[in-house]
Amino acid sequence: MNSSKSIDIKLCGQDFFNFWVGWVERLLAKPIKLACNDGFHYTPEKLGVSFYPSYKKVKLNGSGIGGVMLFLKKSVSIFILLVGVLYVNTLRAELIIDITEGIQSTHKIAIVPFALHAAASDKETEVISQIISADLASSGDFSVLEKDEMLSAPTQAEQVKYRHWAVTGQDYLVIGSILKQGKLYKIKMSLFDVVKKQQINELRINVESSSLRKAGHYLSDAIYKAIMGIDGVFSSRIAYVTTSELANKKKQYSLFVSDYDGNNAVAITKSNEPLMSPAWSPNGLHVAYVSFENKVSEIFVQTLNTGARRSVAKFKGVNGSPAWSPNGKKLAITLSKSGNSDIFILTLANGSVKQLTRSWAIDTEASWSPDGDSILFTSNRGKGAQLYIMPSNGKGTAERLTFEGDYNARGSFSKDGKQVLMVQGGKGSYRVAVLDVEKQQTTILSEGRSDESPSFSPNGQIIIYARRKAGKEILSLVSVDGLKKQDIKSSLGFVREPAWAPKAK
Amino acid sequence: MTIKSKGLMALLLILALSACSDKVVKPQSGTQGALNSVAENSAYDGGNDLSVETVAIGQGQGMDQVTELMQSDTFSNPNSPLSKRVIYFEYDSSNVKAEFVPVVEAHAVYLVNNPNQIITLEGHSDERGTREYNIALAEQRAKSVFNMLQVLGVMNHQVGVVSYGEEKPDAMGSDEQAFQLNRRVEVVYK
Fold it and tell me: What radius of gyration, in Å, describes the C-alpha atoms of chain A?
């Protein structure tokens, strides 16, 4: 863009502009002139934005206005709150997804509140359209139209007037209805392409009230798939560890499993001693983790729907870093019973362990290749921690995989095996990075000083990781291209070690 | 092995009583290995309480003895090297620095002279780097101290090693001052 021009924006809302004008100007590296329909021209000075002394009142004829408009529209929906309030043993677990930067929504979508028929006027049914809105907005791929900007509120296909949606620039429209029959909620949802003026699909699902939230995520996934062509993550779950201080000053460590947005959080185990390294079984039914509850490290495997668990590794020394084989039959683990940390393969059926690495150095953080043939691990056998790879059957030697940077650790493969997600350290900062294995090209995805525990979403498009912010530990999301970033706020303050569950089969 | 202190006796008794799992060295297999087949809710209510209780009794009775010992002149007088029970390390290193060698030696002498005294070496790291790597690193630190004690004549059974990595920081904060305090091995008398 030519920096000698300014850009006119015909939008009102003074508070809104107060906040954003300076930011947008900085982004575009050119001044913006703000005009309202009433003919009143806002200047940064009038709006109290005084930090742009170089502001010039140049008349604009810009191309790219649309882009700015889109950007501003999106910022309206920036503060999307997904509030998950769950009471588990009086512990309030609250995670809130907060879009922080890099918003470049490609699709504009309107989600009309669903019509409520026959006794389905309960508040709980409102949840459906709210969940869909929140899901799609949180993906960063959609900008969702505010309810009060809608010109009509159709609930059936016949009532849809495409021009009502085209005029506000929408690409897609979602309408629906909910009918309550006995215990069942019968939900109907239709998706329309506003540009093509045609219906894309219609979905009908019946659920009980306890599954309304699930139904909302299911519909979000359907919309996402229909428009984006890939699976959404809205029905997926995550595991994470929190720490808090009890009234008696003792620390409480909790391992939570929740929906991807933090709702339905359940502490699957708690302890006054550290809990670490949650790892999902490939079928999503079990979680392996490390617990110090017996004052030594120990690996447990817990079955989620029953809560039953068993100790699978309690050797002398370190028992850590469990990683499931793709077929779910083995765990790669770290044990130090042979003297220092080495990788072992544990067969779950009979409890036997086989030593994979034998070095004087630290070998840990094993992860399997998608075909199960190779084990990726962290070792400081060279200078500093780096990633190495070796055959999982132990036949063959370890080869170094990473060469860029002083510290590359905790690697894990993408589903197609082409990328390795890891933590890269250097110059006092530890960041989430992704390595293109073939090209040996590293892309840094985060910008904190102590970012860690990255985990791929089931569709491979998003990465969840832990970072430190203002003395707290929080979870954060970043798209695999690094462009979209979101924080997941928590009332707990210390949330770490997120692990995204695989897609439920 | 003669049992000298009541605390130690209590501790051993508790260890023997509290969990058959303590005897299990090999991991258990299949459904036989179910340590905790209770339902989820009771698993974390009961399990948690149990863990707290075990600790409370195990250390509680022994605690008086240990507290007494730690308050004795030998361990609390700042001029005594035994008053220093934390050994600090450099970044990503498990080498015991020269300035801490006398500290380790003093504990070695005490342990050799008191063969029934047991200790745990707790390895810790700062928050930088990945968590499991830090578990391994902090264990190496504790083992460095362990090896020195061994060379100086301390019996293996007197020393336990546990690594907490970055999970139990001594100092909060993300600056070098906090990092220095967190890269440590704590000598914990039992």
Answer: 25
Four-point Cα dihedral B142, B145, B151, B154, nearest 10: -80
- Kindly give, in sequence order, each residue whose CB lies less than 8 Å from that of residue A42, ignoring residues fewer than 6 positions away: A14, A17, A21, A34, A35, A36
Q: Is B78's Cβ below 8 Å from some Cβ in A?
A: no
Question: What pTM value is reported for the model?
Answer: 0.77
pLDDT tens-digit series, residues B130-179: 999 999 999 999 999 999 999 999 999 999 999 999 999 999 888 999 99
What is the largest distance, in Å, between two alpha-carbon atoms of chain A?
79
In CATH terms, the superfamily for domain A104-228 is TolB, N-terminal domain (3.40.50.10070)
A401-428 pLDDT, tens per residue? 999 989 999 999 999 999 999 999 987 8
B101-113 and B131-151 helices, crossing angle to 10°: 60
Please give the Cα distance from A365 to B131 (Å, whole number): 9
Task: Tell if the CB–CB gap between B28 and A267 is shorter than 8 Å.
Answer: no
Rounded to two decimals, the ipTM of the complex is 0.78
Query: What backbone phi and psi angles, to 5 degrees, belong to A267?
Result: -80, 110
Distance, in Å, from the CA atom of A377 to the CA atom of A398, rounded to the nearest integer, reads 9
Q: CA-to-CA distance for A105 and A321, rounded, in angstroms?
A: 37
DSSP helix/strand/coil, B60: helix
Contacts of B24 in chain A (CB under 8 A): 311, 314
**Contact B136/A294, CB-based, under 8 Å?**
no
CATH homologous superfamily, domain A237-500: TolB, C-terminal domain (2.120.10.30)
CA–CA distances in Å: residue B97 to residues A292, B9, B91, B125, B135: 29, 35, 12, 15, 20
Q: Determine which of B167, B175, B190 to mutate to test the interface with A (most A C-beta atoms within 10 Å).
A: B167
CB A300 within 8 A of CB A289: yes
Test B33 with A310 for CB contact under 8 angstroms: yes
Q: Is B52 on the interface with A (CB under 8 A)?
A: yes
The DSSP element (H or E) to which A198 belongs, if any, is strand A198-208
